[in-house]
């Protein structure tokens, strides 16, 4: 089973995942990464911070090749994501599509 690494990109800083996870494919690794993003967003919400919304998880393979980048904002529920899009568009800030 392939091993995937889910690194966290915070601005210019990269917090590396030293252990990785074994999953059958990239879709399964993406699902796990989104679950982790949702956990981090929930904790940030409890602490009253929103500074994670510009962060992303970078999924790499065992050779270190980047396979996928998942912006934390994709971990928001659809209604919140749409509301945030509206706010950010009114402030001219760009947001990725889910």
Describe what you observe in this structure.
The chain has helices at 26-47, 78-90; strands spanning 3-10, 13-15, 21-22, 56-60, 66-71. A hairpin with a 2-residue loop joins strand 1 (3-10) and strand 2. The mean pLDDT is 87. The protein has one domain. It is α+β, with helices and mostly antiparallel strands and 98 residues long. Strands 1, 2, 3, 4 and 5 form a five-stranded antiparallel beta sheet that branches.
List the helices and strands and how they pair.
Blueprint: E1 3-10, E2 13-15, E3 21-22, H1 26-47, E4 56-60, E5 66-71, H2 78-90
Antiparallel strand pairs: 1-2, 1-3, 1-4, 4-5
Q: How much of the polypeptide forms β-strand, as a percent range?
A: 15-25%
**Structural class estimated from helices and strands:** alpha+beta
Largest sheet: 5 strands, antiparallel
Mean pLDDT: 87
Assembly type of the shown chains? single chain
Task: Provide the low-confidence segments as ranges.
Answer: none
**Number of distinct beta strands:** 5
Share of residues in helices: 25-40%
End-to-end separation: 28 Å
Q: How many structural domains?
A: 1
Tally the helices. Answer: 2
Question: Helix-strand pattern, N to C?
Answer: EEEHEEH
Dominant shape: elongated
**Radius of gyration, Cα only, in angstroms?**
14 Å
Q: How is this structure best summarized?
A:
Helices cover 36% and strands 24% of the residues. The protein is α+β, with helices and mostly antiparallel strands and 98 residues long. It has one domain (3-90).
What structural keywords apply?
elongated, five-stranded antiparallel beta sheet, alpha+beta, 24% strand, 36% helix, 2 helices, 98 residues
